[in-house]
Design goal:
Number of domains: 2
Bound molecules: flavin mononucleotide
Largest sheet: 9 strands, parallel
Order of helices and strands: EEEHEEHHEHEHHEHEHEHEHHHHH
Oligomer: single chain
Number of helices: 14
Number of strands: 11
CATH architecture of the largest domain: Alpha-Beta Barrel
Shape: globular
CATH class of the largest domain: Alpha Beta
Length: 338
Amino acid sequence: MADTVKIGKAVIKRTAALAPMAGVADRAYRLMCKRFGAAYAVSEMVSAKGICYSDRKTAELCTVTDEERPMAVQLFGSEPDFMAEAVKIVLDYRPDIIDINMGCPVPKVVGTGAGSALMKDIGLAADITAAAVRAAGDVPVTVKIRSGWSADTINAPEMAKALEAAGAAAIAVHGRTRDQFYSGTADIGVIRDVKQAVSIPVIGNGDVTDADSCMRMYRETGCDLVMIGRGSYGDPFVFEEIEARLSGLTYKPPTLEERMSVMLEHIRMMLDMSPKNEEMAMHEARKHAAWYMNGYYGSAKFRGRCYQLSSYSEAENLAKEFIELQNSRIDKNNAKNS
Ligand SMILES: Cc1cc2nc3c(=O)[nH]c(=O)nc-3n(C[C@H](O)[C@H](O)[C@H](O)COP(=O)(O)O)c2cc1C
């Protein structure tokens, strides 16, 4: 397996990338995933029209810092002219790649004809892509799609071919239909079919949560890069695990203390980067704290307490208490076994 994948002029390590996730994968999240080895990251989706009307959130969403590179800014829209205009504005932020969202299932986006609604109009999807490609100059334009709109209209391979012809430099495929939203399991076979249909790189996405599922995605689809969304919730370490597997190294998962220390650092970053005051910013950090505590003894109760956090020092105290609880369990078990 090659060590890197080339998307236009962008060179990406062939390990695993972080998927775009609006409301989740903000700069702090991306930086944390990058630190543990995410090969590539994509911004939260940004409205092409919103950018053209100089939405106040544009700079916050489109800024690409050097630590996040290689990184794409992702746009959604349903009109080629607005898309082209938005691409020109986004170029000022010097993204490595511009990605177009043609997979978002939410009614607010689909209702405007954008996101996965474009799976139902391949002609328009190709026109939007061609307009973006023309406006982007030498910056590669990629498109993220789903397997289709519904189970009886799976058309990702046909869509991917049209987008390749329109100038797309790569296609990311989430192996679910729009109708599935996030339920059921991702269909790996569709991703393989897309890979066989086009000659540009294909990024496989859906249900990858660890090194085993990542290897399966590479093996069964032949994709050029794997992309992880929810599997990185509270677990930026997943990228390190995958990198270790691909390099044939033994992976040593973080201790609970290390995990909690990364959680606190993640929260600190979120608070420092937020324009909001500590209490308001902490509201956004709560879910991340809860995710980092997943899978341990008593974590349901602690996750509930994460949703009450209103300051960094409360998060520190909760992490301490969580570690004490886990350690006391280990002590009890040792006493029992001795
Ligand atoms: C909270 C959330 C927000 C998302 N936001 C975006 C987005 O802004 N753009 C996009 O293309 N996909 C978005 N997605 C879809 C993910 O990128 C990904 O395709 C999907 O979660 C399947 O991958 P996974 O099983 O690894 O999570 C989002 C998913 C979630 C759960």
